[in-house]
Amino acid sequence: MEVLKIATAGSVDDGKSTLIGRLLYDTKSLTSDKLEAIEKKSKQLGYDYLDFSLATDGLVAEREQGITIDVAHIYFSTANKSYIIADTPGHVEYTRNMVTGASTSQVAIVLIDARKGVIEQTNRHFFINNLLRIKTVIVAINKMDLVDFSEEKYNAIKADFEALMSKRDYQDQKITFIPVSALKGDNVVNKSDKTPWYKGETLLENLENIDNQDVFNVGTPRYPVQYVIRPKTDEFHDFRGYAGKVYGGELSVGDDVVILPSETKSKIKEILFYDKKVQTASRRSSVLITLKDDVNISRGDMIVRANDLPKREKEFTATISWMDSQNLKAGNKYIVQHGVNKVLAKVDRIHHKINPDYSGVDDTVEALAINDIATVSFKLNKPIFYDAFKDHRTNGSFILVDSKSNNTVGAGFIQ
Amino acid sequence: MKDTSSINPLENEAIYIMREVAAQFEKPVLLFSGGKDSITLVRLAQKAFYPAKIPFPLMHIDTGHNFPETIEFRDRLVKELGLELIVRDVQDSIDEGKVKEESGRYASRNQLQTTTLLDAIEEFKFDACIGGARRDEEKARAKERIFSVRDDFGQWDEKNQRPELFDMLNGNIELGQNVRVFPISNWTELDVWSYIQKEQIEIPSIYFAHTRATFLRDGLIWSADDAVVYRDDEEEVVERIVRFRTVGDMSCTAAVLSEAADISSVVQEIRESSISERGARIDDKRSEAAMEKRKQQGYF
Lengths: 415, 300
Description:
The structure holds two protein chains of two kinds.
Chain A: E1 3-9, H1 16-26, H2 32-44, H3 60-65, E2 72-77, E3 82-87, H4 95-103, E4 107-113, H5 120-131, E5 136-142, H6 151-165, E6 174-179, H7 203-208, E7 222-229, E8 241-245, E9 251-252, E10 256-260, E11 264-273, E12 276-278, E13 280-281, E14 286-291, E15 302-305, E16 311-322, E17 328-329, E18 333-338, E19 341-354, E20 361-362, E21 367-368, E22 373-386, E23 397-401, E24 408-414
Parallel strand pairs in A: 1-3, 1-4, 4-5, 5-6
Antiparallel strand pairs in A: 2-3, 7-8, 7-15, 8-14, 9-13, 10-11, 10-15, 11-12, 11-14, 16-22, 16-24, 17-21, 18-19, 18-23, 19-20, 19-22, 23-24
Chain B: H1 9-24, E1 28-31, H2 36-49, E2 58-62, H3 68-81, E3 85-89, H4 90-95, H5 113-124, E4 128-130, E5 147-150, E6 178-181, H6 189-199, E7 210-217, E8 220-223, E9 238-243, E10 256-257, H7 263-272, H8 282-285, H9 290-296
Parallel strand pairs in B: 1-2, 1-4, 2-3, 4-6
Antiparallel strand pairs in B: 5-6, 7-8, 7-9, 9-10
Helix pairs in contact in B: 1-2, 6-7
């Protein structure tokens, strides 16, 4: 069954958790004991409705404060598809979580409160989804019940959002607008009779009709070697296989390949998935490849088609989303984890900070603080094999790891 | 099979995670409970490293209150696949005075496992423990990372988790820390059952309908095994046809009435079911934040 990962973005009180709860409730994904817990808690809090946000707000601190503070994953499925929702928080200070949730998602839902319309944070949510090149964005204009399901209001918000779209970098992004009331259930799973002027699909119909193959950016095949398998048993005495995941495109038996960094040439001899031999490794599959020649390959090396080489550089410029409370400054050293490959990197220069609300750039900054987004140049201690993020979502991205704290401190998108 | 396009994306993801563990850590271990999730992990590990053997041992923290069918199954599986199994007993932790056995109606050794587990991690210097927890099981687990760092004391700091971006897994840790790894994080209960069916994976017999001496408490059905499960005299023992949806300790795992005697009827039943899996686990009902608290202390 196909799996579709969805990132959600909305400001505090836009009703994001309620929307997710509503999706679960109307698709009958809430089990009776969970529903019972929600009913009990809603009653305890004195509500005369079911507070579906209680279905998703996981941690104790969140329940106390009544807000979502981290990325939570929620699961539901229809006969057609399995869905994973990354529920990411909407506060100004949590850009980090939004980037994280969006990095693994193929679809994003941006929530707008119909009473407030497009606000500064909407710009930010849209900016991040566009930066991460999420192919499909659904703009759910929520709380329509509080504006009397006004078509005029809906159209005004839509026009404001469209003005924002003209500023985006990634123009091929597909954007759909849907008027909803998460609390009352209008146009979430069931079509509303209060919006006769809206002829489009409900939120769920829209998700159901997304072509799953289409949401993954297609590029050239890249095969970073994860693990070398040498069984050294009688049956497989001289066997040497390279385990990994195929990104971007597909690789087939007989393909002429080059192994980086050695630049050795060879041919793909076999492709295995467990004990089955296959002709072609499709993108996103975890396989095992053997080569015609005896080549010295280790983890972090990359197998690519001979006529399709990535860039091979000891420096690059990237858009960085900074996620640590310790500032990033020129001269600082980090580990760049590019797929399964790790290299040491030094910050060469911070070019400029990008205001994620589309209000321009700031080229006077000396340091990046948590939640900043900026263009930064790095120098590496050895070359990596990369593509620009716009051409290859996987091979153009990396994470920054602090070698002292071991924490993941940033995400990067190579320009 | 001509190409790999029809392969389950969740299976691909889990295999990728297994390989990252083997590559990034010195001494990984697979925490094996004898339940369906950890049996699924064993199959995924086989697939990840074929034709080589699984490059890490299995470890079972045995509470001594397991269903006998589970233990019998465990030993057979390990023998058939030629795996290395480490067993550490909660009874030893009790005997050494490290933990105190609970008493009364709701006595369970479930919480005591944590001490035995942390001691074993220290004894073998394991730096990565692969577990079968899934995010759909429970609200606190929904926020768990795939690589989840534990400090020297095995504690989970849920407010200070590393962000996980793309499919890049950061396994950098300090000496003394370890990482809990959850390769089937993104699977649901139904995904696991469907996989077991498709792969024809053998699981312990208690997952299928059988006749069992049971009693009722708090609306749940308990196995009447007086040596392990506390029972009042008023709590009458009745033979019922039941099965277990989850396999933990006898003292905290309730049965469900079911006629599903084979895998396809179990999958069918799960598909139609309206009670979530952990609904049959009394340890979570203790309080709404029960799981989160246990996780902070180092529980699986």
